Amino acid sequence: MAFNKRVKIKAVLDQSPIGQEITLMGWVRTKRSNKNVSFIALNDGSTITNYQVVADPNVIAEDILKKCSTGACIKITGTVVESLGSGQSSELNAKTIEVLGEADPEKYPLQPKKHSLEFLREIAHLRMRTNTFGAVFRVRHALAFAVHKYFNDRGFFYIHTPIITASDAEGAGEMFHVTTLPIGNPPRTEDGKVDYKQDFFEREANLTVSGQLEGELAAMALSEIYTFGPTFRAENSNTTRHLAEFWMIEPEMAFYDAEDNQNLAEDFLKYIIQYALENCEEDLKFLAQRAQEEENTKPADQRAELGLIEKLKFVVENDFVRLSYTEAIDILRNSNPNKKKKFQYLIESWGADLQSEHERYLVEKHFKKPVILTDYPKDIKAFYMRQNEDGKTVAAMDILFPGIGEIVGGSQREERLDKLTQRMQEMNIPEEELWWYLDTRRFGATPHAGFGLGFERMVLFVTGMSNIRDVIAFPRTPGNAEF
Amino acid sequence: MAFNKRVKIKAVLDQSPIGQEITLMGWVRTKRSNKNVSFIALNDGSTITNYQVVADPNVIAEDILKKCSTGACIKITGTVVESLGSGQSSELNAKTIEVLGEADPEKYPLQPKKHSLEFLREIAHLRMRTNTFGAVFRVRHALAFAVHKYFNDRGFFYIHTPIITASDAEGAGEMFHVTTLPIGNPPRTEDGKVDYKQDFFEREANLTVSGQLEGELAAMALSEIYTFGPTFRAENSNTTRHLAEFWMIEPEMAFYDAEDNQNLAEDFLKYIIQYALENCEEDLKFLAQRAQEEENTKPADQRAELGLIEKLKFVVENDFVRLSYTEAIDILRNSNPNKKKKFQYLIESWGADLQSEHERYLVEKHFKKPVILTDYPKDIKAFYMRQNEDGKTVAAMDILFPGIGEIVGGSQREERLDKLTQRMQEMNIPEEELWWYLDTRRFGATPHAGFGLGFERMVLFVTGMSNIRDVIAFPRTPGNAEF
C-alpha cells in the first residue's frame, strides 16, 4: 500500500486549495496551545515557510497533541480553510493527526531557540532541520541545478573526470594518498621501499586536486565540456575559506582565447546568481535577514554596505572590472594601506604574489565590484597557462568577489607543444607522466581555455554565510570526518 | 580579441543558413581529393554528423590542403550552399582555411579505419574523437542532465554527501584507505600500532561506498533528496560490469514506503531513458547500428531479440514486472536450467542468494521485461532495510534489466529504533559509530525509503556498449589509473 499520499507544503502555499481535504506530513517546529485550540507550525523541507495546522482538542485527543512537540514527525489530514490570524492565506483544520515519530523534548537538541552555528556544526546530522540550514541547502541545490542548466542549454557536455589519479603533476596542492596496502606494514621491494606494484592500481595513487587536465582531453573532442565533481586538498588550513573536500566546476573550451574565457565566466557567474534570485526568493530573504543580524554585531565601519540581495543584484547588473595584474600592482603600490604600511605583505615590486588582503582591497575598497585580474607573472602560475608575447606573463585570469576573494581561477591554455614542454622543463615537471596531455598538443591542437569555480565559495557568496563549513552538508577539515 | 567566432556544426545542420558566410572550427575526420576539388568531413563534437567542407584548389593553397589530414584542427570561413551530392542539405564552400593544429599522419593513432575497443581504451585521451565514443559521452551527458532535471522538476534537493568517510559500517564492499601518513613509515603509538591520531582526519578514513546513510539524514529534514556522486569499491573484480570508481544516484525520500519507492524508481528509469530517446536520436541510431554489428558476430541463438532503440522503447512503454523473492525462487527452482543443472549455482531452497545467471534468466528468458524483485531474506541484505512482518524478509527491492542484471538496489529503511539496533547487534555493527544515523530514529522518525542507481550501468544499457570501461571517460580498475 502506497503511503505517500501527502501534499507538499510548497504546493499548498502556491495553490491555497480552500475547502479541500488534504494530507500533510512533516516535522513540528513549534506548538502553541490554549484551552480551546492548538496551533502547530509544520515544516516539511519543501519550503522555509511553516504551515499552520489548527487542532481542536475536541477533535484531536490530548495524548496525541502532547506528542506533537518540537521535532516530532506527524501526519495530518484535514481541510484547508482561509486563514484570518496568521500571515498566510490558508491553514489546515486537523481532522486526524498521527504521530509518526516523537522527539523527546528532554533530549531533542533542536528546541525552538537560537543556536550558535558552532553548536549546529557539531550536530550536522540534524542542522538541516533549522531555518538557516534548510535555506542554505535549498539554495545550494538551486545553484547546482543552475550550473547544469547553463551548460546544457549551451551545448556543453558534462564529463566525469577521475577522482583517483596516479598523476600528481598539477601541483595545485598537497594530495591525499589512496591505497589498499596495510599502512605501516606494506609489502616492500628488495631495496626496502614500499612496493606499490602490489597496491590496487599497481602504482602510487592520490585524490585529484582538479579535473582540468582530463577536461582538456575531452574538450579536444567535444569542443565544450564541463566537470562538476569533488576535489581534494590535504592542507592543514583551518580557515573559514578552506575545505579538505570540496566541489569544483571546471569548464574547458576548444576555440576559446583568454577574452572568450572571461566572457563566458562572467556570463556564467551572473546566470547562476540570477537563477538563485529568481528561484530562491524566500530562502534568500531569510538568509539576508540573518546576514544583516550578523553584520549588526560588527563595528559600524566594518559592516557591508549592501544587504545580501542588493549585493547579488549588484553583481548581476554590473560589468565586472577587467584589468591586468600589472595595472593592479600599480594601484596597490600607490594605495593608502600600502603607503601607510597597513598591508601585512607590502607591495614593493612587480612579480609579487597577491595575498587575500590585496585582492579584497581591489574588490571591496578600490573598485567596489567583482574584478577579473589577468596576465599574471608566469612564475607565480601553473605550467599549462599560455605564455604571453612579453615573455614575462601568462594568459591567466582570477575572478575576485567581495567578501570571498578568489572565486574563479582560469587561463587560456598553452597549446604550443614547444612552449609547453619548455615550461615543464623549467618547472621540473616530468614529460613522461603527462604524455597523454602533451598528445593533445601533438595532434589537432587549437587555442583553448577554461576555468575553475569553487562551488562552496559560490554558495558562501550567495547565501551570505561566513564559514565554508556551513555551506556543505558534512564538511571535511583537518581532524574532522564525522558523519 | 575574442577568437571564438565559430558556429557549431549542430546549429548549422539545424538551421541550414544557405547563402550566409560562416566560420567553422573542428577536426578533420577524412579528406577526399581529386584534381578539381577536396571534400573535408569536419567534426566539432557538437554532433556525431560530420559537415562537408568543399575546398577548391584554386582558392585554397595546396600546402594548406595537404595539412588538412585526419585529426588536424582547422578553421574554415566560407559560404553555406545547398548540397547536391552528399546526404546533407547544405555544405560549406571554403574561402579561407587556417590550420590550427596539424596531426602527422605517420604518428596520429586515429587514422580512418576500424579500431578495436581494446585499442581505444589504451588511448582513452583520444578515443572521444571517434564516432563511437563521441556518441557514448554525449548520451552520458544527456542521461546525467535528465537525472538532475527529473529530480529538480519534482522538488527533490541535490545533496553532496561526503567522499571521504571515517565510517565503514555500511559494509557494501572493500574500501580504499585515505591517508596523509607515509605508508611505509607512519608514526606509531606506544604499543606499536599506526597512530591515526596523527593522520589528517585524526582517525582512519576511507573512500565512500555509498552516500545513502548521509542522504537519509538530509531526507529527514528536506523530505526528498538525491545524491549523484562518485563511489568506490576496492575489489579485485576484473569484469565488464565493475569499476573501482563509479558514479551513483541515490534518492532518499521521507514518507515513502516500499511501494512508493518502486513507483518512483520505475518512473525515474523510464524518464531518463525517454529523455535520451528524445534528445540523442542520432547518437543512438549510430550506437544501435554498432551494437547490431556486434550482435551479428555472435551465434544466432545468442543474439538479442530487439535492436537497441526497440529495447529502450520497450522498457519505456511497458510496466516492469514486480514479484517477491519468494515467487522468484519458485520460478527458478522449477525452471529448465535448474532442473537440467545448467545453472552454475543450482537453486535448491529459499534463502539462496541470487546470482547473475538467475537474475538474467528471470529478466531475459522468463519475463522478457525489467523486473522489480522485492522482499528478500533479511540474512542476505543490509542492516538498514525495513523488517517485514514475517520475521524473515526485509522490504528490499532490486531492479533487474536485460543484459545488465541489477541496475538498482533499494529498500524501505528501518525507521523503528528498537528493530534497527537489534539488527545491528545481530550483525555486529557498532552503535557508537552510527550514533548520528540512529538519532534520526530517535527524533522525528518516519517511514522512508530510497534506492541507488549505478550510473555507468544505466549508460551501458542505453548506449548498448558491452564493457563498463567504455562508458566512463577514464576508467579505474585493478592495476589501472592511467590519465
Task: Provide an overview of this structure.
By secondary structure, chain A is an alpha+beta fold. Chain A has 2 domains: 6-101, OB fold (Dihydrolipoamide Acetyltransferase, E2P), CATH 2.40.50.140; 131-173 and 209-320 and 369-470, 2-Layer Sandwich (BirA Bifunctional Protein, domain 2), CATH 3.30.930. In chain A, 32% of the residues lie in helices and 23% in strands. Chain A has 14 helices and 16 strands. In chain A, strand 4 (73-82) and strand 5 form a beta hairpin. The longest helix of chain A has 23 residues, at 131-153. The first copy, chain A, is globular. Chains A, B: This is Asparagine--tRNA ligase. Chains A, B: It catalyses: tRNA(Asn) + L-asparagine + ATP = L-asparaginyl-tRNA(Asn) + AMP + diphosphate + H(+). Chains A, B: Its main location: cytoplasm. Chains A, B: Keywords: Aminoacyl-tRNA synthetase, ATP-binding, Cytoplasm, Ligase, Nucleotide-binding, Protein biosynthesis.
Quick synopsis:
By secondary structure, chain A is an alpha+beta fold.
Strand content of chain A: 15-25%
Helix content of chain A: 25-40%
Question: Strands of the largest sheet of chain A, in order across it?
Answer: 6-10-11-16-15-14-13-12
CATH class of the largest domain in chain A: Alpha Beta
Arithmetic mean pLDDT of chain A: 96
Order of SSEs of chain A, N→C? HEEEHEEHHEEEEHEEHHHEHHHEEEHHEH
Distance from first to last alpha carbon of chain A: 33 Å
Work out the oligomeric state of the chains in this entry: homodimer
Query: What's the CATH H-level homologous superfamily of the largest domain in chain A?
Result: Bira Bifunctional Protein, Domain 2
Query: Which residue ranges of chain A are poorly predicted, with pLDDT under 50 across at least 5 consecutive positions?
Result: none
Total strand segments of chain A: 16
Q: Can you tell me the CATH architecture of the largest domain in chain A? A: 2-Layer Sandwich
Keywords (chains A, B): Aminoacyl-tRNA synthetase, ATP-binding, Cytoplasm, Ligase, Nucleotide-binding, Protein biosynthesis
Catalytic activity (chains A, B): tRNA(Asn) + L-asparagine + ATP = L-asparaginyl-tRNA(Asn) + AMP + diphosphate + H(+)
Protein name (chains A, B): Asparagine--tRNA ligase
Subcellular location (chains A, B): Cytoplasm
